[in-house]
Amino acid sequence: MQSHSQFLKIFFAFVVFTVSACSQPExxxxxxxxxxxxxxxxxxxxxxxAIVGNGGELEGMNLHYMEGDSATTGYLAVxxxxxxxxxxxxxxxxxxxxxxxxxxxxxxxxxxxxxLAVDLFSGRLGTTQEENIALMTEANNNMxxxxxxxxxxxxxxxxxxxxxxxVGAMGWCFxxxxxxxxxxxxxxxxxxxxxxxxxxxxxxxLAHMSHEVYGTFARLxxxxxxxxxxxxxxxxxxxxxxxxxHIYDExxxxxxxxxxxxxxTRSAPALDAWTRLKAYLDRTLK
Length: 286
Fold this sequence. Notes:
The chain is of the alpha/beta class. The protein contains 9 helices and 8 strands.
């Protein structure tokens, strides 16, 4: 078993291996964007448009949610209606806050969540593996700052009159691992969803988690490998933390966010993961 401090020390080495397989200035005086996302939840046999390559024009707004930091630029998507709504913080991959992640934020707003896609790289977007590694290195060397960023995002969401006060966090790859760290070290929130991020197998560290954990993983993945997922699940159980984890066969790292890259193989597991995720968010946030 590895302690939580050891886990943070090896974070960068693990993430570099993993992601090679993937490809508050103060809040605005009026936090509500001029346009909102129409309420249009997916049907039982549908996935969110963004992950299948059908994301539309962006309907949200850029948002500076870190006090005194004009470089950090998140993306806020708000559902139509007065609410109050549950809220989500979504955490980007190793390359930064891309338009596909912004489109996913719009899709979650269509499901009825006030959604803030955070920016952990101060507005920068990597375009090569070298650039992505450099951005992750910088974030890893400032892990307290990363947690403070997510704390600020959560505080912003809870300050809104159209939010119930319940907030969840989720991310993919680099962002999935950060979501786990935030669940352990950040301000209390109500949900953590991990898509193939780096994991822990220490029940003592995981006992700091205050809520059920969701996880989607791939059999053809080495970061985390299936045996690491199994160790994570055993540690969660030992710590008494409820969880909904699943390893999908026939797919590899990064399959869920980009179903369109191999629709024939990825569609069925991605739909099942989405169905599980919607049920998880219903029971933890709604």
